[in-house]
């Protein structure tokens, strides 16, 4: 799935969710490379719902969202929860 982000430096996030609900192959387009690579590696193989609960609501400075928060929104959309 490819999710178009909003309100962050990254313009899109691509990822897969397998039949067991695990997150794989997360790639951010743009954004802070080190941070987005770190987030992607940390949630590799994690249950999508667990990832959502850990990432949802994270802010970037004064912005009301962040790349991790946008990933939580993308995962919710992929699961049909958005």
From TrEMBL:
Q: Which residues form the TSCPD domain?
A: 3-79
- What EC numbers are recorded for this enzyme? 1.17.4.1
According to its UniProt record, this protein's enzyme class is oxidoreductase
* InterPro entries per record: CHP03905 (IPR023806), TSCPD_dom (IPR024434)
Q: Name one Pfam family in it.
A: TSCPD
Tell me its family. Belongs to the ribonucleoside diphosphate reductase class-2 family.
Q: Which reaction does it catalyse?
A: a 2'-deoxyribonucleoside 5'-diphosphate + [thioredoxin]-disulfide + H2O = a ribonucleoside 5'-diphosphate + [thioredoxin]-dithiol
UniProt protein name: ribonucleoside-diphosphate reductase
User: Which keywords does UniProt give here?
Assistant: DNA synthesis, Nucleotide-binding
Residue ranges crossing the lipid bilayer per the database entry: none
